[in-house]
Amino acid sequence: MIDAQIYSARSLLVVGAHAFDAEVIAGPLAAQAARRGVEVTFLHLTMGEQGHTALAPAAYAAQKRAEAARFAARLGIAWRDLGYPDAFLPDDDAVALKIADVIREVRPDTIVTHWHGSWHKDHRAAANATKTAVLYAALPTLERAHPAFSPSLLLFGENWEDDEGFAPAHLVDVSEGFETWREAIVEYELARGLSSFPYVDFYSALYRMRGCLNGTTYAQGFATTSHSFNAGGGMFAGARHRPSCGCGGDA
Ligand SMILES: [Zn+2]
């Protein structure tokens, strides 16, 4: 059970490719975490400004910034964006360094981002860049504006577009956060019928289905990192994982 680890932590960072992605891969989780006093930040790598049937990208980007702000206000969380163009998010070290700078500044105990198995190139790029960013944030020899920092937990959230090989290792109770999410998500036109995909129906049913399997009303599913990734992160985190500390564990 990672519920206590997430909800008793100081800080949570959710990295989404497009504004509205963080809101679905970790929206109810963020709402519940904020209620418990966790400082939550959403980082949108792009605003997801392509694809509106009537608005030009610049106008839709402005609309989505307003929607992101209203969603965040309802949850009582912070948000920021990196301003990359929708559909052209680079899968490169420059993006990873910008995410790493945010990690070093916010110092999140838990980070949630996309699962890499996605048909959407921006989602794959976000997943790759965030994993690299965790490495860059932790590298003590990499000098940036803020000192090195390593999160305790990196999770990959559930998104309908990221379903290639997604298998949740953890189900987290989000029952306290669901209603807040349900009321906040309709701040986005995407959730009010702009898309032909029935987002609210899909995600409400998904969170309920995960809850059925978790023994709670609602739950969100998360995949996690490999043992080797965790061991590597532990190397940069200091002596706590090293056998030389005498315990060989987390103590
Ligand atoms: Zn997206």
Summarize this structure briefly:
With 251 residues, the chain is of the alpha/beta class. 43% of the residues lie in helices and 17% in strands.
List the helices and strands and how they pair.
Blueprint: H1 3-7, E1 11-18, H2 21-25, H3 27-35, E2 39-46, H4 57-75, E3 78-84, H5 93-106, E4 110-114, H6 121-138, E5 153-157, E6 170-173, H7 175-185, H8 199-214, E7 219-224, H9 227-237
Parallel strand pairs: 1-2, 1-4, 2-3, 4-5
Antiparallel strand pairs: 5-7, 6-7
The chain binds zinc ion.
Organism: Kaistia hirudinis
GO molecular function: hydrolase activity, acting on carbon-nitrogen (but not peptide) bonds, in linear amides
Pfam family, one: PIG-L
Word description of this protein:
The chain has 251 residues and is α/β, with parallel strands linked by helices. It has a single domain, classed as LmbE-like (Rossmann fold), CATH 3.40.50. The chain is 43% helix and 17% strand. It has helices at 3-7, 21-25, 27-35, 57-75, 93-106, 121-138, 175-185, 199-214, 227-237, and strands at residues 11-18, 39-46, 78-84, 110-114, 153-157, 170-173, 219-224. The protein has a 7-stranded mixed β-sheet, with helices on both faces. The longest helix has 19 residues, at 57-75. The two termini are 18 Å apart. Mean pLDDT is 93; it is low at 239-251. The structure holds zinc ion (ZN). This is LmbE family N-acetylglucosaminyl deacetylase. It holds the Pfam family PIG-L. One of its GO terms (molecular function) is hydrolase activity, acting on carbon-nitrogen (but not peptide) bonds, in linear amides. InterPro entries: GlcNAc_PI_deacetylase-related, LmbE-like_dom_sf.
